[in-house]
Amino acid sequence: MSQRLMEVVLRPTSLILPVILVFLIVMGILLPSSIRSLLMEIMIFSIYGMAYDILFGFSNQFSYGQALFFGVGAYGVLLLALNLNADLWTAMLVAVMLSLVFAFVLGILAVRLSEAYFVIISVIFNMVFYLLALDWTWLTGGDDGLTFTVPPIPLGFASYSVYDPIVNYYFILFFVIATYLILKRIIDSPLGKILVSIRENEERAEFLGYNVIRYKLIAYIISAMFTGLSGTLYAIRTRYASADYFSLIMSADPIIWTLIGGAGTLIGPIVGVVILRILTYYISVWWRNYFILIGGLMILVLRVSPKGIVGYIASKIGVKF
Amino acid sequence: MLSELLMRMIFSLTNGIVWALVIALIALGLSFIFGLMEIINVAHGELYMIGAVLSWYGLVWFGNFWLGVIMASLIVGILGIVLERATLRPVEGRPAHTVIVTIGLSYILQQIVLATFGGWPQKMPDPLPVTVQFLNVKYPGYRLLVAGLSAFALIGVWLFLHRTSLGLWIRAAMQDKEMASAMGIPVSRVYMITFSIGAMLAALGGALAAPVVQVFYLMGLDILSVSFIVVIIGGLGSLKGTFVASLIINPLEGIMIILLTPTEARIVSLIAMAAVLLVRPKGLFGVIK
Q1: Contacts of A259 in chain B (CB under 8 A)
Q2: Which residues of B touch A112 (CB under 8 A)?
């Protein structure tokens, strides 16, 4: 009986997601501002984590350099609003398109390479652009970064300011839900099935007549666009961007979220983000070198739980994602 | 005016060649470790950094720079053994997993140095404060010494690989692990020693470079990007390729620095790497599966 109950509760399309959704909608107004602020950060990084899962969990392309697209998204929206006075939708759209262009150029070079080359190429590009962001202070503000005034959100005849934290909260919530629904739709579509078949056995997918490289490139680009989206939301949330948005620490974050939560489950990375962000939120207060803990987690996670939390629960109760 | 430009070019080119030898030393370890165990060591830059930090401590404790260099290499060599046995052993042969583990290692190593050595860059005194003059260019003598020592170490590695039985074992295991194991080569121990040598080379590079650059807990980042570029252009696992690529990329960046900032010069290397990969997806000398 309890197994049946667990199954109902944990099936991603059943009760649990609507409950979380209602909780998030109601809590936007009720929560104290510090917790709301943490929740906003968690939601933005959830988009980043889900985007990473499309790449790593669903098409088995291990990248250590996604912060490149996060930074491009963040700076895209900031520079457009700051220098060209673009309205918010235009700025966000262009920023996401910029991530697409970057991913296309880089993807053409990288996706056809073997696993080891792919990882190293992703790291190299990420590092060089990070160094460039530090160097070109006239454009990026370097280490100190740039602040900007976020234009209001135009919605038909009315417009809302993200400087109202509650507006900002629902703004982000909208994009998290949209991202989840779109990515879920992609995974359940034939495209998603092909990606999984490539992940499981690349050669067989090739023999079945699929253009493996093209599908890997598609997954790479989709992932980069949503990573860019999370970058734009983060810049809007903080009204700021700095070279640190390109840093390798930013690139390692989605890896650990996805591994802890469970790769190839889509909601796994969200679980990972929640655990890691809450952990660091409280620990960083009293331990300056808390990165030792994160480093330890990265060393141990594959040994302790290669499938992650969601993967573990799913295998215990026989639910398939 | 023209002669001044020429002098600057000679200076930058010499710098590039000096760095080429140091980077070859560091990247050799990286390539070595990958070729044998398929470990992509993201923490390699941290081993370089620890080499530099330990040589700084060596100077403080013993008052002798060279003693510090030897101490740094030995300690990091032992550290390499510990890290390989304790953390990398279970994931060897799976590049993605080794990246995850070595990211964790690099965080821990950085934080330990931050907590003990501090977060401020430290300058070291020049161990050989002479200038050498050639072609009307004054060049710091210590850097030439570094180049000489790096070349010496590179020859040492080559002799070790080709003239000792342990080197033969390493080359055999690189070609075919199972066959090497069947022939009675203790492959697991060969792995451990190879990782230790790779770590030692990175530390030696860091210790020698310490008086030229600033000793800083994030100094590994810059070195790692150029080392990776060199390893990719040369071909993963190819020691000859690593050496040749280093001798191409670093003088190229050296010359570019006359016109560009160091980071923009790195972009030129990046483009060179992309061009090589488009023509040869396994790098110039790549043979690995």
Answers
A1: 100
A2: 281
Domain segments of chain B as ranges: 2-279
A23 contacts A17 by C-beta, under 8 angstroms: no
Query: Is the separation of the CB atoms in B254 and B139 below 8 Å?
Result: no
Q: What is the pLDDT of residue B259?
A: 87
Q: What domains can be seen in chain A, in order of their start residue?
A: 2-317 (1.10.3470)
> Alpha-carbon distance A63 to A251, whole Å?
8
Q: Write down the pLDDT at residue B69.
A: 96
Query: What's the CATH number of domain B2-279, 2.60.40, 1.20.1070, 1.10.10, 1.10.3470?
Result: 1.10.3470
- d(CA A198, CA A159) in angstroms, rounded, equals 45
Please give the DSSP secondary-structure letter assigned to residue A243: G
Mean pLDDT of B86-104: 92
Query: Which residue did the predictor score with more confidence, A243 or B283?
Result: A243
What is the average pLDDT across B274-279?
Answer: 90
B172: closest CA of chain A, how far (Å): 22
Say yes or no for a CB contact (<8 Å) between A298 and B100: yes
Strand locations in A36-88 (E): none
* Pick from A116, A127, A259: CB nearest B224: A127
pTM over 0.80: yes
Q: Which residues of A touch B (CB under 8 A)?
A: 62, 64, 109, 112-117, 119-121, 123-125, 127-128, 131-132, 134-136, 248, 252, 255, 259, 288-289, 291-292, 294-299, 301-303
